[in-house]
Design a protein that fits this description.
With 400 residues, the protein is mainly α. 61% of the residues lie in helices and 4% in strands. The longest helix has 27 residues. The chain starts with 12 loop residues before the first helix and ends with a helix.
Length: 400
């Protein structure tokens, strides 16, 4: 018999206590309640820039890109207020994420004003991993990123894209991950994260307010539907500027970057227009398995931030996402003439070395002994324990 589906909506006791404390603190005036008004978020982020804030907002961006971000912020904040039904912890987390997005946007704009050459960095053709969330994209990404001939993004640079001296971004990222682990220990069991480890670029499209990261943790159907129907080009132009900045400041521009975000499947045509010389790796997995895992992940994040999660609505959203991404990915690939490798989830599970050898051959890449040795270390370190810990953590939440 299948376990009760309510266990997907369980929260850790620590998160429950943190949310209750925040609610009391705001009600009694001990702490100011977070303001999710877009103007308030802008005002807070603009303070360090003073009179130069407007110039930092432009930051070498087109008028279309500036306007797109503004309207996205307004609509996302409105959806949070009207639809998300956030609990106090969720409201604090939403404010933290959005305030950081606006702060980083102004800081990056100021950087690009001072160093416009960063936006013109020439990049080696990337290797782009495309596939649904929970379809094996993370494993493929980590294996390809282990190859010393390739470049990859680190967690600390994904979530703190403004370059900082003395490794401060790694320190910030480590502290944030420690807090996240305290509030939601389950997340590390299904998607382990470390400050300096390989990380996808989800945060870079989220920096331009792509809906994907937000709809996986908040019930915001109005924003999701609106954003899905909107041209994503401004988002990916910002993504490209951040990618070029990261490559230039870390000295990685001449090595192929291994890129991976599940939302790439949704916007593949736009992405390929920016990278016409890319190599593609398509991750494939049974859609029923993808749906189960995606719903589990999204439900856990939503339950942390809202006391009124509806599992049926979460499942409906992810059925829609799978169908939408399949259709858009197929349309983009129909006209694609570049190198493509397809890796099935089950084939990776059964014989990852054989699957990777086929992948390299189909992409026209050389799989060196050094690369293979590095990949074996990744696989040895990853272990199946994460999957067992995932199940155990859910059981503990359900019994809390």
């Amino acid at each position: 018999m299948a376990p009760p589906r309510d266990h997907l909506l369980a929260r850790s006791p620590l998160a429950q206590r943190a949310s209750a404390f925040l609610g009391r603190a705001w009600a009694r005036g001990w702490l100011p309640a977070p303001d999710l008004d877009p103007d308030a978020l802008w005002a807070l982020a603009a303070k360090p820039h003073g009179a130069r804030a407007e110039a930092a907002e432009q930051g070498g961006r087109s008028a279309e890109d500036v306007a797109d971000f503004r309207v996205r912020l307004e609509r996302l904040c409105a959806a949070l207020q009207a639809e998300a039904d956030l609990n106090p912890l969720g409201r604090a987390m939403a404010w933290g994420q959005l305030s950081r997005v606006v702060k980083n946007r102004l800081a990056l704009g100021a950087l690009w004003q001072a160093r416009p050459e960063l936006r013109d960095t020439r990049l080696a053709p990337p290797i782009i991993v495309v596939g649904h969330m929970r379809s094996g994209t993370t494993r493929i990404h980590q294996l390809l990123a282990a190859d010393p001939a390739h470049a990859h993004t680190r967690y600390c640079d994904a979530y703190h894209p403004v370059p900082a001296p003395l490794g401060l971004n790694r320190v910030k990222a480590a502290l944030e991950l420690a807090l996240l682990g305290w509030l939601n220990p389950w997340m590390q069991t299904i998607h382990p994260m470390e400050a300096s480890a390989v990380e996808e670029e989800l945060a870079w499209i989220s920096a331009a307010l792509h809906h994907s990261i937000y709809e996986s943790q908040w019930h915001i159907p109005a924003y999701s539907a609106w954003s899905e129907g909107r041209d994503p080009a401004p988002i990916y132009r910002e993504f490209l500027r951040i990618l070029k900045t990261d490559a230039a400041t870390r000295g990685l521009a001449e090595r192929p970057r291994v890129l991976k975000v599940p939302a790439f499947a949704e916007d593949l045509a736009t992405l390929l227009a920016l990278f016409p010389d890319a190599r593609l790796v398509i991750a494939e997995r049974d859609h029923a398995a993808v749906l189960r895992s995606a719903v589990s992940l999204a439900a856990n994040q939503m339950a942390l931030q809202s006391d009124s999660c509806d599992l049926a609505k979460i499942e409906a959203r992810w059925r829609h996402k799978i169908a939408l991404r399949e259709a858009r990915m197929a349309a983009a690939l129909a006209g694609w003439q570049g190198p493509v490798a397809r890796l099935a989830f089950d084939a990776l599970e059964a014989d990852w070395e054989g699957a990777i050898r086929r992948c390299y051959a189909e992409l026209g890449l050389a799989l060196t002994p050094e690369a293979l040795a590095a990949m074996r270390k990744v696989m040895a370190a990853s272990a199946d324990g994460h999957h067992h810990a995932h199940a155990a953590q859910l059981a503990r939440f359900a019994g809390a």
